[in-house]
């Protein structure tokens, strides 16, 4: 079940920057290392709904229904546009002589979860990628899927935390 192929492929997928990585890096740059860890946690928790959707078969519906997939995709686009507008309006992020407005840990986690919740790429990833590593002869395919997902989520958290901490270190050195 847990093969070197799975570990390498998952690591490569996690390393490829997406919206969650960009959010974690920008949080690390502007809000500090603790905030970047909260953002990494939120992005990781944002994977859970996609896992549940896959397990419950909702991902198959999203995969076969172009309308459902488009609705999710455009909801994600709308949320990203909202985040872009909110960032544009927050002038403190562009001023280096004062600290950016503080967001609570809860706010960062919720924003990160929503960012990943509306990411259809994760649904397709869980539908197409993870099941390939679950043996049809497994005693408990559900348990195997949960273990593989847990490993993927752990990798996601570690990589995103490193991204955020490196971003903070870069900002601090400037």
How would you characterize the overall build of this protein?
The chain is an all-alpha fold. 76% of the residues lie in helices and 0% in strands. It has helices at 4-15, 19-31, 33-45, 48-56, 58-64, 66-89, 105-117, 120-128, 141-173. Helix 5 crosses helix 6 (66-89). The longest helix has 33 residues, at 141-173. The relative contact order is 0.24. The model has no long low-confidence stretch (mean pLDDT 82).
Distance between the termini: 45 Å
- What's the overall average pLDDT, rounded? 82
Low-confidence stretches: none
Give me the strand/helix succession: HHHHHHHHH
> What's the oligomerization state?
single chain
User: Class by helix and strand content?
Assistant: mainly alpha
Total beta-strand segments? 0
Describe the largest sheet. Answer: none
How would the blueprint of this fold be written?
Layout: H1 4-15, H2 19-31, H3 33-45, H4 48-56, H5 58-64, H6 66-89, H7 105-117, H8 120-128, H9 141-173
Helix pairs in contact: 1-9, 2-3, 2-9, 3-7, 3-9, 4-8, 5-6, 5-8
A few lines on this structure:
The protein is an all-alpha fold and 174 residues long.
Brief descriptors of the model:
174 residues, mainly alpha, 9 helices, 0% strand, globular
């Amino acid at each position: 079940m847990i093969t070197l192929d799975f570990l390498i492929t998952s690591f490569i997928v996690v390393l490829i920057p997406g919206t969650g990585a960009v959010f974690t890096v920008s949080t690390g740059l502007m809000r500090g290392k603790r905030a970047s860890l909260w953002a990494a946690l939120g992005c990781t928790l944002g994977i859970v709904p996609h896992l549940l959707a896959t397990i419950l078969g909702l991902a198959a519906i999203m995969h076969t229904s172009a309308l459902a997939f488009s609705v999710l995709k455009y909801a994600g686009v709308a949320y990203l546009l909202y985040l872009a507008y909110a960032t544009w309006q927050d002038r403190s992020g562009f001023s280096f002589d004062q600290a950016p407005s503080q967001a609570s840990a809860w706010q960062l986690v919720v924003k990160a979860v929503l960012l990943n919740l509306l990411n259809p790429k994760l649904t397709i990833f869980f539908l197409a990628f993870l099941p390939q590593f679950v043996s049809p002869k497994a005693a408990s395919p559900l348990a195997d899927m949960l273990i593989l997902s847990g490993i993927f989520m752990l990798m996601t958290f570690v990589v995103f935390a490193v991204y955020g901490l490196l971003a903070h270190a870069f900002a601090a050195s400037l």
